[in-house]
Write a structure and sequence with these properties.
It is built from nine helices and nine strands. By secondary structure, the protein is α/β, with parallel strands linked by helices. The chain has one domain: 3-Layer(aba) Sandwich (Carbamate kinase), CATH 3.40.1160.10. The longest helix is centred in the middle third of the chain and has 22 residues. The model has no long low-confidence stretch (mean pLDDT 92).
C-alpha cells in the first residue's frame, strides 16, 4: 500500500494521566490506531504531560520559587515519560526511539514505521508546537488535537453554561481568542505559539475529545463529527 500523509496527533496528557495512568483509555487508543493503520494511515503521536507535570511543578513550588523555565523542563520530562509509555504500547509498530529534540525530525523523515512518537523538546512552548514543527517538516497538513474537551468555546463551559462553541474557526478568530503568548500554566485548546506556525503553513487543526475515538475516526474519514476545525 502506498504511503499516505502522516497524521499528527497531539495527545493530551489529560487523557494519558487524568489522575493516575488511564490504562483503559490507552487500550482503546491502541485499538483505534491499529485499526486506522489497517486503512493505510500513518501517525506521529506527540504526548502531553498531564497531571504528572502539574504535580511535579506544584511540588517544586512548595519547596522553592520555581522559574518558568524550570516549570517547562519539569513538564517536558513528564511528556517524555508519557512518550516512552506510548512507544512501549506500540512497540511492534513504532519507530525505535522517541523524539526529544528538533534534530530527531530528520530521523523521522526516513522512518518506515507507521507510528512515530515524540515528547516535548525545549522550554518556551508546549508539545502542540512540537507537533506543528514535525508536521511542517514532514509535509503533513492535518493535526488532531485530542484532549478532554470536545469543542473550542468562547469561555470556559465548566464555569459558564452558556458558553458558545465553535464548529469551524479561522486562525485569526482562534488567535484572537487565545492570544499570542505562551505560559507554562496556561490552559488553551492549542498553544498560541504553535497556532502562529500552523496558520503560516496553512494547516488544519481539529480539536476533538479523546473520550469518543469513533468520532475521531469519522473526522479522519471525512464523515460528520463533533469538534472544532481551525483552518
Amino acid at each position: 500500500m502506498a504511503h499516505s500523509e502522516r497524521i499528527i496527533i497531539s495527545l493530551g496528557g489529560s487523557l494519558i494521566v487524568p489522575d493516575g495512568i488511564d490504562w483503559r483509555f490507552l487500550k482503546s487508543f491502541k485499538t483505534f490506531i491499529e485499526d486506522e493503520i489497517k486503512k493505510g494511515r500513518r501517525f506521529v503521536i506527540i504526548t502531553g504531560g498531564g497531571r504528572t507535570a502539574r504535580r511535579y511543578i506544584e511540588a517544586a513550588g512548595e519547596v522553592t520559587p520555581v522559574t518558568d523555565e524550570d516549570k517547562d523542563w519539569l513538564g517536558i520530562h513528564s511528556t517524555r515519560l508519557n512518550a516512552h509509555l506510548i512507544r512501549t504500547i506500540f512497540r511492534e509498530l513504532a519507530y525505535q526511539k522517541i523524539s526529544t529534540n528538533r534534530d530527531d525530525i530528520e530521523d523521522f523523515s526516513h522512518a518506515e514505521n507507521p507510528i512515530l512518537v515524540s515528547g516535548g523538546w525545549h522550554p518556551g512552548s508546549s508539545t502542540d508546537y512540537c507537533a506543528t514543527l514535525i508536521a511542517e517538516h514532514l509535509g503533513s497538513k492535518r493535526i488532531v488535537n485530542l484532549s478532554n474537551i470536545d469543542y473550542v468555546y468562547d469561555t470556559d463551559p465548566r464555569k459558564h453554561p452558556d458558553a458558545k462553541k465553535f464548529e469551524r474557526m479561522t486562525w485569526s478568530e482562534f488567535r484572537a481568542l487565545v492570544g499570542d503568548e505562551w505560559d507554562p500554566g496556561m490552559s488553551s485548546p492549542f498553544d498560541p505559539i504553535a497556532s502562529k506556525l500552523a496558520e503560516a503553513e496553512g494547516m488544519e487543526v481539529a480539536i476533538l475529545s479523546g473520550s469518543d475515538l469513533g468520532n475521531v475516526s469519522r473526522y479522519l474519514s471525512g464523515e460528520p463529527f463533533e469538534g472544532t476545525v481551525i483552518s
